[in-house]
Design brief:
The protein is mainly alpha-helical and 195 residues long. It has a single domain, classed as Four Helix Bundle (Hemerythrin (Met), subunit A) (Up-down Bundle). Helix content is 62%, strand content 6%. It contains six helices and four strands, in the order βαβαβαβααα. The longest helix is centred in the middle third of the chain and has 28 residues.
Amino acid sequence: MPYAVPISFAQFWAFSACGILFFLFLLRAAAGRTAESGARRDRRSQLGIIVQTIGIAFAGFGPVKPILQPLSLAGLCGTAAVLGLMSGTIGLFWTSSRELGRNWSLVARTRADHELIRTGPYSRVRHPIYLAMLLFLLALAVALGHWLQLIVAIPLFLMGTKMRTDAEERLLEQSFGDAFRDYRKSTPSIFPKVG
């Protein structure tokens, strides 16, 4: 099924540059973690991480056809789309991880001093970092011209995301009870309400 629509080198390099910036923010968030005691973990979220990663990898799998002129209408639109998606990715990840602070973790877990964050992006969706990761997946597909691969990549990514959010929300409900249940009722999981 690997298929590629024509792209310009500009959209590929725009994604590459923004991707490096995104991974620097990811490393910064990971480095900011502090020692924790009394943490509860849910290792089932690790399977979700694997499935999400396969989905993202699938969006990147296949040939690349960098034959568009960078200043052609299609080349400019592709580059603008990549820059828009990656700006959303970086901005959403940065603000979300900043709001979480010491609560941020790769694997589902709650700390003994965990806080239920409902500010910033968390006032609009419960899992904004996964929305940022979905934008990254879309930017990757646009950058490489892999539109057809999204037929498989998006469902895989969403399946892995569901595994992770279920694990995280079980822990949050155990820690915060009714406060979390009220938050879950009033705030969508990944996609913000329109209007």
